Amino acid sequence: MALQKLSHMDELISNRIKESFSKQGFMETLGAEIILIEKGKVIIQCPFHSKLSQQNDFFHAGVMTSIVDSACGYAAYTMMPNQSDVLTVEFKINFLKPANTNNIYAIGTVIQAGRKLVICDGIVTNEKQDKVFAKMTATLITINK
Amino acid sequence: MALQKLSHMDELISNRIKESFSKQGFMETLGAEIILIEKGKVIIQCPFHSKLSQQNDFFHAGVMTSIVDSACGYAAYTMMPNQSDVLTVEFKINFLKPANTNNIYAIGTVIQAGRKLVICDGIVTNEKQDKVFAKMTATLITINK
Amino acid sequence: MALQKLSHMDELISNRIKESFSKQGFMETLGAEIILIEKGKVIIQCPFHSKLSQQNDFFHAGVMTSIVDSACGYAAYTMMPNQSDVLTVEFKINFLKPANTNNIYAIGTVIQAGRKLVICDGIVTNEKQDKVFAKMTATLITINK
Amino acid sequence: MALQKLSHMDELISNRIKESFSKQGFMETLGAEIILIEKGKVIIQCPFHSKLSQQNDFFHAGVMTSIVDSACGYAAYTMMPNQSDVLTVEFKINFLKPANTNNIYAIGTVIQAGRKLVICDGIVTNEKQDKVFAKMTATLITINK
């Protein structure tokens, strides 16, 4: 997966997402970065660091979960009117393989956007996208600010 | 919730859990600490820090998820024979309230321990345990080392 | 678990639930009956019949799931204003034990009721309530009619 | 979706699945039929009948859940050695649209088959496969008979 430039979709939404992301102290702690924003799809990259490890020195499940939850949240955000915010109601995640790799990529994709609820699929994969480390389904709700 | 001393249950299991926990770079990054280990139950505490925040400066959902996943994992671990390890197969988590508090406590409790699989309930709560911020059900598997 | 009389709570809500339940052809097909309606809690009973079996002649997982989903749905319904309807957004269920028993009881309990969303816990148990066959967490949404 | 003939894959597995399915009294009660068995994939069809309805006379969520759980279970079964059985550990299902259609089709697909655990995706769709009514992720375990 080559590092992709942000598309020229809605600059407004893209800027709001980048601004929101920059306010998340935790994403900075993880060293995570948004590398793609499209209508209905967001990709977040996170390089390995020993401060992100579990006991066997792979990516901690909590790190994978955190970035794919964010990717789903921002994917939902691309579908929403300007004055709305989005909250994760719940998600389920299956861990399929240990993430012993240098970089993980979380891909969040909207599969249904209703008036109040948005349902997203998320995966955590490697650069080549030939391994899926984890797989999420998330339910999000729009909040009028 | 007063900081509770580790019980005198199986010192061996307790020591193995503390050793495993100390190898998780990510738990140190979060500033998380185990404050209770009992047969079938583990509590992890995590103080707020801006590096753990989401965009509204509360605890990030990923932080809550990470510590309650660990609490469930170590709760499962207390049920296992010595030469086993434990992996999270999957979990589902509902986020019930924003975690605008100084400390969060993740309580993992075993609800069924089979030969291969262990099912745990997890909650993320405040010190008084009068608010539940998030609620998890997790499936874990034992691995013979 | 003795068959419990319906409580004298809100007769209106209770009647609306019984009317809705009676319109569900599938609940009649299962032979399921509501045996308790309280604010935030509903219990549904279902006797075993070979037409409800899986391949080993126990209750089919789908039967357990169907009645506990209904119990959660009607538990949510007890919390709602009169002109609302309720839909299941999603649920997760763990199957803990084979249900080799004469009657199963599904207990749905509201754990959080917000303006739009209601979160419920559900269990499927036996008459003595000393075995839990399955455990659900469900998210429901209110719809204004 | 034209009614598809059973493929000529492993006749042995296919026959074992059909035999197991025929023992499930509940599948007969639903009027469900297996219409495709392939390595890692099973499709079950279910025609609408008022005995399968919810209160608005669409397919009951419990019916959709029951057949897609079975489709996932038998999809897992196609991956297993002969002397094994398969049990559903847990699943999560999101309901995306009301199923107001004459026939529903549940498609279960294996996404990872390990030594003990199999993870499946399931969807419930219409004949043209242009609407997804529900979406499941399921975890199953193999049991040596």
List the helices and strands and how they pair.
Four copies of one chain form a homotetramer.
Chain A: H1 11-22, H2 25-30, E1 33-38, E2 41-47, H3 61-77, E3 84-95, E4 103-113, E5 117-125, E6 132-144
Antiparallel strand pairs in A: 1-2, 2-4, 3-6, 4-5, 5-6
Structural overview:
4 copies of one chain form a homotetramer. The first copy, chain A, is 24% helix and 40% strand. Chain A has a 6-stranded antiparallel beta sheet. Chain A has helices at residues 11-22, 25-30, 61-77; strands at 33-38, 41-47, 84-95, 103-113, 117-125, 132-144. The radius of gyration of chain A is 14 Å and the shape is globular. Chains in contact: A-B, A-C, A-D, B-C, B-D, C-D.
List the defining traits of the structure above:
145 residues; homotetramer; Thiol Ester Dehydrase, Chain A; alpha+beta
Query: How many angstroms separate the termini of chain A?
Result: 36 Å
The multimeric state of the shown protein is: homotetramer
The low-confidence parts of chain A are 1-6
What's the level 1 CATH class of chain A?
A: Alpha Beta
How large, in whole angstroms, is the Cα Rg of chain A? 14 Å
Order of helices and strands of chain A: HHEEHEEEE
CATH H level, superfamily name of chain A? Hotdog Thioesterase
Structural class of chain A comes to alpha+beta
Helix content of chain A: 10-25%
Number of strands of chain A: 6
CATH topology of chain A: Thiol Ester Dehydrase, Chain A
Question: Which pair has the most extensive contact?
Answer: A-B, 34 and 35 residues
Strand order of the largest sheet of chain A: 1-2-4-5-6-3
| Largest β-sheet summary of chain A | 6 strands, antiparallel
Number of helices of chain A: 3
The proportion of strand residues of chain A reads: 35-45%
Can you give the mean pLDDT of chain A? 92
